[in-house]
Amino acid sequence: MAVDLARPDLTAAVFGAGTMGRGIAQLCAQAGLTTLLFDLRAGAVQEAIAAIDKGLEGLVSKGRMTADSRATVLSRIKPITSFDEAKPAGIVIEAIVEDIAAKRALFAELEARVAPDAVIATNTSSLSVTEVAAGCARPARVAGLHFFNPPPLMKLVEVIGGLRTDSSVVDALVGFARRIGKHPIVATDSPGFVVNHAGRAYGPEALRIVASGIASPQEVDTLMKEAAGFRMGPFELLDLIGADVTHAVMVSIFEQYFDEPAYQPSAQMATRVTGGLLGRKTKQGFYNYDGAQKVTVPTVSVSKQPPPASAWIAEADGAKELGEWLKAAGVKIQFGGKPAPSAVCFVTPLGEDASGAAVRLGVDPSRTVAVDMFGRFSGRRTLMKTPVTKPEILAAAAAALSAGNLPVTIVNDSPGFVVQRLLAMIVNVGTRIAELRIAAPGDIDIAVELGLNYPKGPLALGDVLGPARVLAVLDGMHAITLDPKYRATPWLRRRARLNVSLHTPD
Fold first, then answer.
1. How far apart are CA 129 and CA 163, in angstroms?
2. Fold held by 419-498
């Protein structure tokens, strides 16, 4: 079909004047397009235009837009009150409630009123584009154009073709996204597309860590920010999005993938939704938001506890660097062999718990601690104890790792600590997206960096950490828990064995 979304006189129509719709309308108007805005609720369009005006006023006050430009942008937004008024539009973008019946009803009405070559796009974040288009007489011109909240600020747009979408429509929408200043990535029609699919690791796995008593939400957040370099911890992010929204997405993707264990929802979240602890919107979630919030993370005081005189270090991943850390604290080091009776035993497992490492290595578990060396983290260190580690041994080990005033977080025994477990799961889900051909490997990374604000995309992250080491973490967790959630993807396993980049195509 002939599609031209590049013509200078293109008119856009946006149906739905809520947060997403008004943001999309603003983008179109700022890009120079006459923009028609519709909403069934009386007064909604006027409220949306007022909100857009306020946002533009803020840009003017910051010197990022002139007053004349602001007036010009606002003049391009035209309220409409009937479907028939959308006839001039070359592209119609739907941004109504996430309900399949409502979207299909709207599309059936729209396609009878707009031009035959107009593109009809849905901003759905979780519904099948194919299913949305199934009720249309001409599904070839229907596609997904998924913006992120808030649309004026978020650079990413996912372009999704349904099974019956004409390829020219996808190409045209890619160009349209660039025209309005966005970075488009093309995804296949699948549950969660790329970004919401990729998000199935960070929050869900953090919830499982807390539910297992390994660490508190505050400790997990602090580790992911200070050790792993994330801008927000998973629980801060859950509170920002809202427990109700997050839980609904978890359940939806789990069910759409026919109960795939990798995407299992959290019973903990279901309870929090029932109890109304939704996060920022209810002023109470994993944190309280009644006033200025200060989160303190329990750390071990080292002022009265000297480092150990000697330490035995298992010859394994990260042992050499750990040895340098301990030497800097004045500790005498022994690598491998039989530990001296007074030495603190340090192990650096990948995916294994401290207890399992102590037993495997034949060292005294009451004198054993584990250190997470997965990313050689310098901002904050993680120390893991066995259930029988002596308090004085734990305190001495923490004192050594805290040399130079570096903070230390102590977690309970678990396969994969906190950070290596979360990072390995992020990588694994990313490789699953690549394996399912949902998007190109490079686009997966770009989508996650722009859409989720992770420091690196999952495949790039896996390459930095080392595919073989990521595989070792997953295999270790799977061996201990016997939980299919932690099975590594063939995409990851194959490339780890070949010692090649996770971006390597088949």
1. 8
2. N-(1-d-carboxylethyl)-l-norvaline Dehydrogenase; domain 2 (1.10.1040)
Establish whether 126 is a catalytic residue: no
Q: What would the mean pLDDT of 252-257 be, rounded to a whole number?
A: 93
Distance CA 454, CA 202 (A): 10
Same fold, 197-282 and 419-498: yes
- Of 146-150, 206-210, 304-308, 354-358, least confident by mean pLDDT is 304-308
Report the alpha-carbon distance of residue 342 to residue 352 in Å, rounded. 25
Q: Which residue among the candidates 94, 111, 123, 125 is catalytic per the annotation?
A: 125
What is the CATH T-level fold of the domain 197-282, as seen in this structure? N-(1-d-carboxylethyl)-l-norvaline Dehydrogenase; domain 2 (1.10.1040)
Retrieve residue 256's tokens.
């759409």
Q: What is the pLDDT of residues 115-129, one digit of tens each?
A: 999 999 999 998 999
Q: Which CATH architecture has domain 310-411?
A: 3-Layer(aba) Sandwich (3.40)
CB 314 within 8 A of CB 350: no
Catalytic site residue 428? no
pTM: 0.94
Q: Please identify which of the residues 158, 205, 219, 236 carries the catalytic annotation.
A: 158
Domain residue ranges in the chain: 11-189, 197-282, 310-411, 419-498
Q: What is the pLDDT of residues 192-243, one digit of tens each?
A: 999 999 999 999 999 999 999 999 999 999 999 999 999 999 999 999 999 9
Task: Tell me if residue 183 is catalytic.
Answer: no
Residues of the chain by 3-state class (helix, strand, coil), percent to 5? 45, 15, 40
**pLDDT over threshold 50, residue 303:** no
Give whole-number Cα distances, 42 to 17, 27, 36, 83, 493, in Å: 11, 23, 16, 15, 55
CATH class of the domain at 11-189: alpha beta
94, 146, 190, 226: the catalytic one is 146
- Give dist(CA 411, CA 144) in Å, integer: 43
Q: What is the pLDDT at residue 126?
A: 83
**Identified catalytic residue from 196, 266, 355, 428:** 196
Angle separating helix axes 458-465 and 441-452, nearest 10 degrees = 100
Catalytic residue flag (residue 146): yes
Report whether the peptide linkage leading into residue 339 is cis, meaning its omega lies within 30 degrees of zero. no
Contact at 8 Å (CB) between 20 and 147? yes
Could you tell me whether strands 368-371 and 381-385 are parallel, antiparallel, or unpaired per DSSP bridges? antiparallel
3-state secondary structure string, 383-436?
EEECCCCCHHHHHHHHHHHCCCCCCEEEECCCCCCCHHHHHHHHHHHHHHHHHC
